[in-house]
């Protein structure tokens, strides 16, 4: 698929500086770009590489100038990059229909435009909306409801009663609606608490590979509209996640915690149960959250605390060996150690 620089500029909201009629046949990083390729530069280092490359045109922030390359200048190079790449590498289209190896319950309702790939299972009374795709090996339990334009990559499991909103993408190996980890000690044994709720996923959510989202013990585990969840994230029963959140790889959220809108949990963050994380809060990587976080809070460390407090403690810890040495020197000079020994 080919585009002129003028066509690309119009689609990404930029302006052409140079040859507006130049034809672009592909998109590549600067190191691998060839004549006819488009590349991008979001900082000085990237721009120098793009200038030295064989690329025909460069998407770049408005501050850059070039004497040798055609530029498509934009307000935000990374946003324009995301839009342009999708033009050159459109996602695979799936034809409507049901593969002969799929197992479909007689009471299931599947829209005529949906695609059900090989070895999929669709349970009783399940509903699949228009243009929804089950790529292969997917399991949709009884009474599940999938909206329009949902895309399930291979081997996704949605337990009974799951509700998946429009335009949701769920990557391979994800499990939506497994039992929450709920037990009570009864006569010396761990007795299972029945998990009878479900999972509700809002529109425009993306769920990464091997994510696990547990069903509510009672009621629902809820993932808000527009939230993006990276690979290998664990979300426990009755958690409520707001809209537009980002949960980075290996984050884990214990039961019944609530995240506001726009929350960011960096990689390997752990959130204890029954906590409230305020709107637009940010938690740094590897932090352990053991207390509520207010709106807009920036917390880090274990246990997680406001960033300014944590940084002061980190600085103090760096000086601790020197401080201990100074104390030891003072004690030696004052004879404090000898006095303590004599007293003992």
Describe the protein's architecture and organization:
The protein is an alpha/beta fold. It has 3 domains: 86 residues, MurE/MurF, N-terminal domain (Udp-n-acetylmuramoylalanyl-d-glutamate--2,6- Diaminopimelate Ligase, Chain: A, domain 1); 211 residues, UDP N-Acetylglucosamine Acyltransferase, domain 1 (3 Solenoid); 30 residues. It is built from 6 helices and 40 strands. Strands 8-11-14-17-20-25-28-31-34-37-39-40 form a 12-stranded mixed β-sheet. The longest helix has 15 residues. The model has no long low-confidence stretch (mean pLDDT 95).
Short description:
This protein has 344 residues and is of the alpha/beta class.
List keywords for this structure.
Udp-n-acetylmuramoylalanyl-d-glutamate--2,6- Diaminopimelate Ligase, Chain: A, domain 1; UDP N-Acetylglucosamine Acyltransferase, domain 1; 3 domains; 6 helices; 40 strands
């Amino acid at each position: 698929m080919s585009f002129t620089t003028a066509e690309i500029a119009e689609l990404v909201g930029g302006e052409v500086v140079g040859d507006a009629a130049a034809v672009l046949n592909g998109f590549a990083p600067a190191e691998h770009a060839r004549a006819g390729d488009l590349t991008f530069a979001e900082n000085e280092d990237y721009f120098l590489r793009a200038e030295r490359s064989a690329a025909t045109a460069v998407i770049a922030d408005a501050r850059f100038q070039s004497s040798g390359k055609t530029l498509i200048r934009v307000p935000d190079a990374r946003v324009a990059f995301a839009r342009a790449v999708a033009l050159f590498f459109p996602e695979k289209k799936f034809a409507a229909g049901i593969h002969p190896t799929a197992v479909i319950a007689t009471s299931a309702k599947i829209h005529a435009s949906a695609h059900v790939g090989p070895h999929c299972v669709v349970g009783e009374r399940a509903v699949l909306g228009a243009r929804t795709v089950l790529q292969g090996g997917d399991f949709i339990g009884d009474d599940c409801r999938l909206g329009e334009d949902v895309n399930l990559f291979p081997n996704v499991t949605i337990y009974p009663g799951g509700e998946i909103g429009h335009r949701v993408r769920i990557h391979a190996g994800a499990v939506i609606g497994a039992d929450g980890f709920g037990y009570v000690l009864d006569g010396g044994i761990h007795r299972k608490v029945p998990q009878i709720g479900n999972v509700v996923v809002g529109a425009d959510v993306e769920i990464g590979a091997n994510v696990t989202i547990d069903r509510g013990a009672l009621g629902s585990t809820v993932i808000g509209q527009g939230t993006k969840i990276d690979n290998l994230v664990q979300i426990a029963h009755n958690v409520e996640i707001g809209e537009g959140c980002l949960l980075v790889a290996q984050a884990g959220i214990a039961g019944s915690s609530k995240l506001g809108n726009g929350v960011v949990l960096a990689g390997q963050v752990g959130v204890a149960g029954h906590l409230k994380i305020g709107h637009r809060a940010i938690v740094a990587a590897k932090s352990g959250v053991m207390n509520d976080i207010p709106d807009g809070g920036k917390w880090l460390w274990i246990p997680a605390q406001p960033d300014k407090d944590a940084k002061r403690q980190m600085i103090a810890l760096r000086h601790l060996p020197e401080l201990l040495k100074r104390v030891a020197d003072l004690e030696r000079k004052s004879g404090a150690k000898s006095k303590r020994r004599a007293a003992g």
